[in-house]
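haha ok so turns out i had the wrong file open the whole time. this is the CORRECT one, sorry everyone. sequence first:
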Amino acid sequence: MPRLRHLTAATPALAIAAAGALPSVADETALPEQTKVVLVLDASASMNEPDPSGVTKLEAAKTALIGALGSLPEDADVGLRVYGATVDGPGRTPAECADSQLVHPIEPLDEQGLTTAIRSFNAVGETPIAFALQEAATDLGTEGKRHIILVSDGEERCVPDPCVAVQDIIDAGIGLQIDTVGFGVGGVAREQLTCIAEAGGGTYYDAADAGTLTTTLSTLSTRTARPFTIQGTPVEGSPTPEGAPLLEVGQYVDVAASSTQGMTTKYYRVPRTQPGSTIRVSMVGRMPAAPDGMNRGRWDWRLSTPDGLECSSRWALASDTQRQGVIAAGTVMAVQLDPRAQQPDARAQACAEADELVYEVKRGNARTAVTTDVEIRVMEEAPAADAESLPDGVASVPRDNSDQLTSPASGAPVSVVGGASFNDALAIEPGTYVTDLVPGEVVLFKTRVDWGQEAIFAIDGPDPAFAPLQGLHSLDWLNVPGNVYAPDFSQMDSQELLRAGMYRMVNGRLELTSRPDINQVPQVNFRNRWDSPRMYFRNSNGFSMAGDYYFAVGLGELRDGELRGVPVPIRFSIAVTGDVQGVPEYAEADVEPSPSPAAEPTPNPEPTQETTESATATETPSEAGDDATEGSTTDAEPSGSALPLVGGALLAVGAVGAGVYAVLRRR
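then structure:
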C-alpha cells in the first residue's frame, strides 16, 4: 500500500504549538464547497471504430469510466451526460446537433447506478460537443465546486464552435473547470479539445489507447477532490495607508493590478496581538502564460512600522521568458528579537515591538495591464522563550551541489497523484514514487521535516521504457524540473542554477544530459532565521521552520507541441533523516502563531541585523530583458548576488476554508 497521509479536515488558524507542529492554514468553521462532477462521454458513431486493444472505442471508454469511479471523492455529487447516443440521421440535422442526455443525475456518488448508466447506451450519431457542454454547465447549477470531464474521439460536427461556447460560459460568470481527454484523436480534434480545456481552466490529456485512457480518467477522478481555487475573506487594499483595511490572522483574497500608466499601490494594516511575536504576511498570485509574457508589471512587497521603518521587503519580476506562466510569491515579516543580540538596533527593536504594521503591495509599470487574483495570508508566531539556548543555525547552506548527492530512490515506485496547489499538495511519507504529468504540468507533494532533521528531494526522471518517449527526436530536450518550497511557501531550491533535469534520446536511449536535479533541505533549526544565510539566491530562510515542505514535480513543454496531452510517468524520491531535536518552547499567549509559517528573516549572523531584513536594498534590475522572474529579494545582503530564475511552473496556488470567496483558477 502507498505510504500516504490522508488529507484531513483543517484545524483552526491558531498557533505553532510548543511541540513545534505547524497547524493548517484553514479555518475549520468554514464549510467547504460541495464538489460536483459531470462526466461527458462521446457516443457518436465514430466510437464504434476499433481501439488498438481490439474492442471498440466505446467499449474501451465504458470500461475506463467504470474503473475510474472508485477514484472519485466519496462525498462528491456525480452525474453522467452523453451525446450522439440516440439520433441516427443523415448528419448535422437540428435533432442530431441537440442529441445529448443526462443519463445519470448529479447526486451523491452512486457507483452501481453510474455503472448501469454507463452500460446503457450505444454509439449512434453526431458529435455535438458545444451543446453537450452547455447542457452540462446547466446540469451543474450555480453552487459548489463544479467540474466537467469530457471524453471525445473527434471534433465538433455541429455549431457553435465549442471553444467559443466554453468561453461564453466562462464569460457569463459560470464558475467551473473543464478537463478534456482526446481518445485516439487526430490533429484537428486535438487542437479543439486543447482549446476547450484551456478556455475552461483545465488540462487536455491525450489517450492513444484504452490503457492510457483508464490511467488518465483515474487521475482526473482523483483530482476532482482538489481545490482549483484560491479562497479567503474578500478584502480591498487601499491606495493610501490611512484607509488601509485591517488584516488579522487568516486568509484573504484581493486583486493586484499592473498599469501601463505607472506604479500601482495597495496598503493593508496588520495588528500584533502578542508582544515580541513574529508577524508574517505572504502573498501568492499566479500569472498564466501569455503570448506577450514580458513586462507585465514587477511586484514589490514591504512590511514596515506605522512611522515608516522598513522591517522586510521582497520583489519579483513578472516576465515569462519560457511562456509557461509565473508564480509571483513574496513573504515579508517582522521577527522577534534575537536574545543573543547584545545591542539590537533601533529598527529591529521597533519592528519586533510595534503593535501594528503596514503591509504594502506595489505593481510596476507594465507594457500590458494585468490584473491578478491574489491570496494574502497573515500569520503570527509566538516568541520562543528559549531562543537563546536553542541549537545554533547552520553556518552554510547547500548550493548547486547535486553532483555530490545521491538519490534516495529504492525499490519499485508507488504511483501517486499530486495536488495542483500548495494547499492541496498530497501528503506523502519519505519514499520512492511515480506520477503522471502532461507537458507543461506541475504537481505538488508535501512531507513533514521536523526540528533537527534534513531532507533530500530527487527527480529520478521519466520512465525510459515509456513507449511514446521512443519517438522523440534526438534534438528534443525533455526538461523535468523539481522545486522545493519551505513551510512559508518560499522557494528554497539548493540547485540555484539548475532549473531542471534535461533528458534526450542518445543512440536510442533516454539519457540525463545535465547534472542530476537533487535538492537538499539543510538541518531545520529555529535559529536558522538569525544565524544562517538564505537559500535560493538569498531569498529563503524558510528552513527555520519545522513543518510540511513542498516538493513540486514538473514536465516542460517540447518544441512543436510534441507529447501534448500525453501523461508521462515521472519518478521522484524523498528522504528525511536525523533525530527530532532543538524543539522551541513557545511563550504562552492568548493568540498563538498561525498556520503556514512564513519565515524569511535576515541571513546575517551579526546581532545588529537580526531582524533588519532590508536596511539597505540591493540594486534591482529593470524588468525588460531580464530572466529573473520570481521571489527575488531586496533585503540587506552583500551586493552581486544572482537572481532567482522562474522554474516554469504553472500552478494554481490556493488555500482552503478561511473565508467565503473563491476565485476560480480559470481567471
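The radius of gyration is 25 Å.
again sry for the mixup
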